[in-house]
Queue: 3 jobs
Job 1
Amino acid sequence: MAEFIDYYKILGIAKTATEDEIKKAYRKLARKYHPDLNPNNAEAKKTFQQINEANEVLSDPEKRKRYDQYGENWKHAEQFEQARQQQGQGSAGFSGGQWQGYEGFSNFGGEEGQFSDFFEQMFGGRRSGRQTRAYKGEDFNAELQMNLADAYNTHQQILTINGKKVRITIPAGVDDGQVIKLKGYGNPGINGGPAGDLYIRFVISTNTAFKRLGNDLYSTVKLPLYTAVLGGEITVETMGGKIKLKVAPETQNGTKIRVKGKGFPVYKKEGSFGDLYVTYNIQIPTGLTEKEKELFHQLANLKKS
């Protein structure tokens, strides 16, 4: 049996934590243990995966409710509820993931010792009778590593799942840590039940000069001193290609401008993009000739007069 992971403990929060507290804790830990910042560190990678898993469950109100009620068996909550409704109410229940009142459960479903397949599978209880129930197969979880340039464009990838090659389309704009579901690509169902699902978590590394925050991109561009002083036009790179920007005269070092619609694609909103924020880094000329130095001296004297 897989080791139980306490999601609250992983994020370092109380069970009464608010949505904002969960979000803040996740972001802080995700930055600390991100694979880009911990290369070749298997333990950090494992912790990063657990952090993402905990955030996925606790940031979803329905999943968190099931987790709080059923603990490590939260994924089977729906099956448990269905079985309980079909077989009648008993005196036992879940508490923090532990089974309570197991010995006093003999009348659940009518005859002594008669348990559904669900209870036999999960708790090892005895069952009698010939009736079997169908249950959904176990879900799979996988991680898909991509770079930022790949995530910028809609593209296809081939995955090998249970020995079969599956072609999937990845929409532009997927985010680091985002999870998508492929229905029916998990383990086969039990007693003819539906197959489980495959959950793919994206791990996106920054392999460009751009920094991504949400759908916006940030970059720093070198600006010649003469263009900064006199104004002009420069060519800058965006993830969608080169564009020209007009530079106002007397532009100061560190000036930041926004280029609307030249940021990152918005997930599943074709034609929608965030913005690009460009910060100017003014370059001081080097290797000046004596003539050029003299001209700068003249300019300096003019400012003094």
Job 2
Amino acid sequence: MPSAEAHVAHTLVRTQATFFNALTLLLLLPLPTPAETLQIGVFTLFHPLELRVTPVSAPLHITTAGRQITLEGNQSHTVRLARLSSQLRVTARDGTDTDFRLSIPGKIQRQFHGILTIKPGDHKLIAIVTMNSEVAVASVVAAELASSTPIEAMKAQAVAARSYFAASSPRHDDFAFCDTTHCQFLREWPGPASKAFRATQDTRSLVLAYHGKPFPALYSAACGGQTRALEDSASGYSYQSVPCPTCRRGSPGVVKGHQFGLCQTGAAGMADAGSDFRAILHHYYPAASLIQISPIAIFLLPLEPALRHIRN
């Protein structure tokens, strides 16, 4: 008959094995990707002293300085730097993403989808929209390209924009990216009925990679007929100079942007000629590959138990 010490050791072994088996099953479940949401600073060029938020359809829930406010219908809430002592947060009633209009009175108004945070900054209000990364990509596509752009060119733009977000480190102290060309030009959320949204959904999770690693893809509006070469030491990707027949025929020598990577004018021309987004990306990023960012799964095998059953 085993001793009391042996019985305790055996029990510990069984408990440990059960724990590691349960942990293994738990960690086999898919985990969300690291960049599931992005913090985008909006209206960053305006250095606003006053901001106004208004509902789009559903009520808004505002939390600030221990107070809670509900906005419905045509109601609005104005935030002034001189009166804001702590951050203000705007969500749906259940605390999740929502549609809202944000404006600088008398200057600009845009509609966003996400969670809004407004913080007092140095002589300005800092407005940050925390949005799903695919919402951000669709917003970039809608800002960069006209709605008449062929869908395959929009898909190529969506992959390039997603690659930039996925591979870039945060570029600001208060938020990851801004809404200007310093990071990526971003305006309003285009909505699920738009071509920009469809192009984003049709390429969901696809990014450009070099040696299996995503890199922050560069792109410009018009290359003048030939893109430029660039050795990107940060990402390791080397941009090659490639011809752009569309720009050579339509606007030779006309350059809008830095001429690296995707030429938006050329991509539209290739799409009109029948090329799909994969062919477009291969042309402008010839050394890159397309990979899919999938949910992370961690496989942890049970460790060998340190305690074993002791026999007398």
Job 3
Amino acid sequence: MLQKIVDLFTSLKLTIICLAAGMVLILAGTFAQVHLGIQEAQQRYFQSLFVWWPPESSGFQIPIFPGGHLIGAVLLINLIAAHAKRFRWAWRKLGIHLTHAGLIIMLAGGLFTDLFAVESHMQLANGETKNYSEAQRRIELAVIDTSDKEYDQVTAIPDTVLRHSRSIDHPSLPFYINVKNFYQNSRLQMLGQAGADARPVANQGPGAQIAVQPAARATGTDERDVPSATIEIVPKETGASLGTWLVSDALGAPQTFSCGGRTWMITMRPARYYKPYSVTLQRFTHEQYAGTEIPKNFSSKVTLIDPEREVNRDVLIYMNHPLRYRGETFYQAGFQKGDQVTILQVVRNPSFIAPYVACIIVAAGLLVQFGYHLIGFSRKRRAAAV
């Protein structure tokens, strides 16, 4: 039995099956981007173990095709197992060994990048300072205790919890949060503009004057969903409801209420990644080609302050010249109209060096392999000439 398993994972047939399945998956995922958008298609097809049917269901689902993670993992295991089984050390096979090692590093690096890399954005106006970046596609419900004058205590509840939980009980909160409705994408309208049949979904805060309608998922590259939810706040001590509130990324300003003798704020916002240092935008520069509105160059001069490491220095971030600090890389990604606000892309990728190492090893392996055969061919030609 063990020998059959070894033969299965080291067989060339498994390699061909994985490559064929990968081609089918790429084709299906590319077509799905038309209706789902890039982000959703990536999650369903390439960042999963299986492609499930039906795609959106809270009930029973069946896997209908292997996902990108499963195909990549099996292909990686197949490559390592096959190479280990057939490994025979010889100088004439050094190039083959190096090429296989490079491919293994490349596959493993791609898998680790997909699993652990985090991308976010930091939007800064001139003179503004931030110690956090924000996710573009992830939303959180922030519950903020503002009673302390020195600092705010923030409890962040991810949108995945809001989507699947009906009652949220967190130790840091003196109340329960009952999720009445969750909208992955929504359209908000004032009651006077929504029609005579429109009804508010909340009875507290601005939501008492707003109608919410579910909307189709955003599919454009420059579009994003507007998640909303209606929640009921119930104190743990009394059990008397404080009402139903509408929280949405479209509302903007936080809503305030009192519970347990403390003042609280709730707001739906992009998920934040806090950092032990701060970044201040000193100046944003935007240059254009003469007579056009085509960007020629745009850059951000920022001040990086890290009290823990006693760092206080100015850095210029522009195209192909990012800032790398504490395992994160800041790229100049864009700007807003008026040239007063810059947008920096923040990437944390623990395996960012893997593709470079893999390419160097593969290139070295190919050079060694072809060089070895070239030298052997030259020797044979010289011997034949003699």
